[in-house]
Specification:
single chain, Triger factor/SurA peptide-binding fold, Chitinase A, domain 3, four-stranded antiparallel β-sheet, alpha+beta, about 15% strand
Length: about 650
């Protein structure tokens, strides 16, 4: 490509600014659009190479090729572990399709010309040209800076995209949208229906389900595999409690004064004023509008000067959304923080005074000074209480770390010594934890992942190193280990009861919806039939298929309502976990006037959908044909391994 640009740097009339995100987005979108159902389920073909994940018309796609492509596409994003297999499949499918497309292009004589490559590079990298002069030395740098890839990678992707575009144009050039299709889509999107409905929620009927002990026993016997008790461990521990350490410590005034002197700059206060203001914005206004705003501001100023409550005026008239709810309160401001005109007024007014109108770049302000402080350094007495806590916390932290290091040293000498002797030596609090699984909080020590990890690895009688938890530093030793086992009903009774009620409530909700539908379809009024079952009938607002009914679901989920006669009762319909029985109360046809407004947008939407479908069909047909001809083989073993390891 570098050579071809040097040879043919012809002037062009078309310049398009295309962001790289859009360019790569087309590649990613194609991976999602053109997934091939069943492609990865194929068996290894007779001609498949043992070191290739796929072979297309004699061209191998090796595991190395796949990994390089995976790394290239994912290097600027993080793929969640649970999605890596699916993402890997998409990438491999696209690689196979791109190889198939190149084979088909050779067969049909379709080519991407050097001129087409050059023009696309000009569109994507206009900075690599000066006028019509190609900047040869600058080109690789521009590619790397813009796309974070080499020239070879960039031009390979570019050629693939151009080839795909050629085929897409060839396949979709004859695709059109008829006026009838536009009208049909318009009606589908815009027609509305209003329904009367009764919603039956399993959650609402669960409380009415009261199984007997034999009922639960039978159900548990059928579902016992669902209930496994994980390994649980209990522990004895010795805790260096930071709260008790803090309570036993005192900090002298000499220590506090030393801290104060070392941090004197932290207690310097600049000239500052506590102010409120009322703002009347003039940004973007005409001279006539500014004059009107000035008159309004002057009227409000007059009210403020004559004793009206300033905060109430600010809440009523101010256009500063940030301070309006607070009565115009800006808090404390320091010199240099605001625009000069505002600062001049705020720092020249006496305490409790109200300014005249102050004009700034934002508009007219009325300013009230609530308080003022001149620059000074706060005295030790002023800040003593605020110093005490951080100094005490640092002292306690230093002591705790020192004791923790001593405990660690003692345990390194022997991790089989008595926990009680160690606790006595370092004045630690001894306690026991209940038996808990690895995901349960270890009361009263909290939910420390490190403590869980250490306890799971300790042998009975062995002491851990000091571990920091919320309350301090703890040394732990395993007391008992309860192995994982199949649960008994007694161990999981509450969970079994909840699961039983949940499952049976789904059946009961369905049964009630069936009973309601049968009664209403048999001639009984929907509201009367619902009342007999303890249900309430509601009437929705008119909604479209793309709309929704609050607490029910989307219009599409009860799409049958759009084709039902008014008054006809539906059968029981499941929407999510719930059941609904409904009847259309009104149909609203879309206004013909709206068709003219939406026509072009709908036509474009339909055309895009039909073009995508046509290209998808070509995509599938091409790969199916190559499979039948023996020109496409997938090494399923290698492919499966890649899906798992990527």
């Amino acid at each position: 490509m570098l050579k071809s640009i040097q040879q043919r740097d012809k002037p062009r009339n078309r310049w398009v600014k295309i962001a790289i995100t859009v360019f790569l987005g087309l590649i990613c979108a194609s991976m999602l659009t053109y997934l091939i159902p069943g492609l990865m389920n194929g068996t290894t073909g007779a001609d498949a190479s043992p070191d290739a994940v796929a072979t297309v018309a004699g061209q191998k796609i090796s595991a190395v090729d796949f990994q390089q492509e995976f790394d290239r596409i994912t290097r600027s994003q993080t793929v969640p572990p649970m999605l890596k297999a699916a993402y890997s499949k998409q990438i491999l499918d696209q690689m196979i399709f791109q190889h198939a497309l190149k084979y088909e292009a050779d067969r049909m004589g379709i080519r991407v010309t050097p001129d087409e490559e050059t023009q696309r590079i000009k569109e994507l990298l206009p900075t690599a040209w000066s006028g019509n002069t190609w900047l040869k030395d600058r080109y690789p740098t521009e590619v790397m800076n813009s796309y974070q890839m080499t020239v070879q990678e960039f031009e390979s992707i570019l050629r693939d995209e151009l080839l795909t575009e050629k085929f897409r144009q060839l396949i979709t050039d004859g695709v059109t949208v008829t006026p009838q299709e536009i009208e049909q889509q318009f009606r589908w999107q815009n027609e509305k229906v209003k329904v009367e409905y009764a919603l039956i929620k399993p959650a609402d009927v669960a409380a009415s389900i009261h199984p007997t002990d034999p009922d639960l026993a039978v159900w548990f016997a059928k579902n016992s595999a669902r209930y496994q008790i994980p390994e649980k461990r209990s522990a004895r521990y010795a805790l260096l409690d930071l709260a008790k350490l803090r309570a036993s410590n005192l900090v002298s005034d000499d220590t506090l004064r030393a801290y104060y002197s070392a941090h004197l700059s932290d207690y310097k206060v600049e000239n500052r004023a506590h102010v409120e203001h009322i703002l009347f914005k003039t940004i973007g206004k005409t001279d006539a509008e500014v004059a009107e705003i000035h008159q309004k501001a002057a009227d409000v100023l007059k009210q403020a000067k004559h004793g009206a409550n300033f905060e109430d005026l600010a809440k009523k008239y101010s256009e500063d959304d940030g301070t309006k709810p607070k009565g115009g309160d800006l808090g404390w401001i320091v010199e240099g923080q605001t625009v000069p005109e505002f600062q001049q007024a705020a720092f020249s007014l006496p305490k409790s005074a109200i300014s005249d109108l102050v004009k700034t770049q934002y508009g007219f302000h009325i300013i009230k000074v609530l308080d003022r402080e001149t620059a000074h350094t706060k005295s030790f007495e002023e800040v003593r209480d605020s110093i005490l806590q951080p100094v005490l916390d640092q002292k306690v932290s230093n002591q705790a770390n020192d004791v923790s290091n001593q405990m660690a040293a003692a345990i390194r000498q022997s991790d089989r010594q008595s926990l009680d002797d160690l606790a006595k030596k370092f004045n630690l609090e001894v306690g026991e934890t209940p038996a808990v699984a690895a995901t349960d909080p270890i009361m009263p020590l909290g939910n420390s992942p490190e403590l869980h990890q250490v306890l799971s690895a300790l042998h009975p009688g062995e002491l851990s190193q000091p571990i920091q938890v919320d309350s301090g530093f703890v040394i732990a030793t395993v007391k008992d280990v309860l192995p994982a086992h199949q649960a008994t009903l007694a161990e999981v009774h509450d969970q079994v009861l909840a699961d039983y009620q949940r499952e049976k409530s789904i059946d009961l909700a369905r049964e009630r919806s069936e009973e309601l539908a049968k009664s209403a379809q048999g001639g009984e009024a929907l509201d009367q039939a619902a009342k007999a079952l303890g249900l309430t009938v509601k009437t929705s607002d008119a909604f479209s298929r793309t709309g929704s009914i609050p607490d029910v679901g989307t219009g599409k989920q009860i799409g049958a309502a759009f084709n039902m006669a008014v008054g006809k009762v539906s059968g029981p319909t499941q929407v999510g976990d719930n059941w609904i029985v409904y009847r259309p109360a009104d149909h609203q046809a879309p206004s013909p006037d709206e068709l003219a407004k939406q026509k072009d947008g709908i036509a474009q939407q339909l055309l895009q959908t039909k073009q995508n479908a046509a290209f998808d069909a070509f995509h599938t047909a091409l790969l199916d044909r190559l499979k039948k001809e023996g020109k496409l083989t997938i090494n399923s073993d290698v492919a499966d391994r890649l899906m798992r390891s990527s």
